[in-house]
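About this split. The held-out portion is used to measure sequence recovery: a designer receives only the structure tokens and must propose an amino acid at every position. Recovery is the fraction of positions where the proposal matches the reference. Here is one held-out target exactly as it appears in the evaluation file.
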């Protein structure tokens, strides 16, 4: 069995009834369909405030899973608390690698970033999402690479995967920031447009994809949490 058990959920009907929705409407519908079975995963990165704001508008008590790899920017940790307070989110859960995983991953980003991500991200998240039927993420087609075809709703490897902003472009995201008065991640002002662990993130130049600053200079474009059985096999990641 996959890590998540869909049990009696009629996934064909979910796709048929809600596959054409997006944004808050999609979240609202699925929260109604799958009460207590849906969680949001968030990096509290450059664009995360928009998805989190939509989630808070639907239900501020929705579980929000925040993965603290031990190598995040201090600004991200501060931003998490800022957004949590501002949006009134009451159920943000911080997930961390075990001490053993952190010891094994020490400085591993230099020599084996795939194993580093496995230890710091994939395994801790796999533990955290056990028991949830549907997982919501902030992936967008506009970010390109393996995200270029991500749908708003799909069922992969036993997980209902929900990407309410899959079709949103930069202008729509920007408009949502402005309309809701959302604060920016502090590093955005320094040119960071996709923000993960500090050793593997750099600012991007105008014209580059937002995700060009992740694992720059390497073939790697995803951390693995969406390319493994943790969150499905469609090839993307936080
Ligand atoms: S993004 Fe970099 S530092 Fe973070 S877990 Fe992956 S390889 Fe390690």
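Reference sequence for scoring:
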């Amino acid at each position: 069995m996959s890590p998540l058990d869909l049990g009696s959920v009629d996934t064909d009907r979910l796709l048929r009834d809600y596959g054409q929705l997006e944004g808050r409407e999609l979240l609202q519908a699925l929260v109604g369909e799958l009460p207590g079975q849906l969680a949001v995963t968030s990096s509290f990165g450059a664009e995360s405030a928009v998805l989190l704001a939509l989630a808070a508008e639907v239900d501020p008590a929705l579980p929000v899973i925040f993965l603290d790899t031990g190598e995040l920017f201090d600004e991200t940790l501060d931003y998490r608390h800022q957004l949590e307070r501002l949006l009134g989110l009451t159920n943000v859960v911080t997930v961390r690698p075990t001490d053993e995983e952190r010891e094994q991953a020490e400085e591993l980003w230099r020599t084996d970033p795939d194993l580093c991500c496995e230890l710091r991200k994939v395994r801790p998240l796999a533990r955290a999402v056990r028991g949830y039927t549907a997982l919501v993420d902030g992936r967008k087609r506009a970010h390109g690479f393996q995200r270029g075809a991500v749908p708003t709703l799909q069922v992969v490897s036993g997980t209902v995967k929900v990407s309410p902003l899959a079709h949103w472009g930069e202008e729509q995201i920007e408009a949502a920031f402005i309309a809701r008065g959302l604060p920016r991640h502090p590093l955005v002002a320094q040119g960071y447009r996709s923000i993960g662990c500090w050793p593997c993130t750099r600012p991007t130049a105008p014209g580059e994809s937002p995700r060009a600053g992740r694992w720059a200079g390497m073939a790697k474009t995803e951390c693995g949490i969406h390319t493994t059985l943790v969150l499905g096999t469609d090839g993307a990641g936080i």
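Annotator remark: Strands lie at 38-42, 64-67, 92-95, 134-136, 153-156, 159-162.
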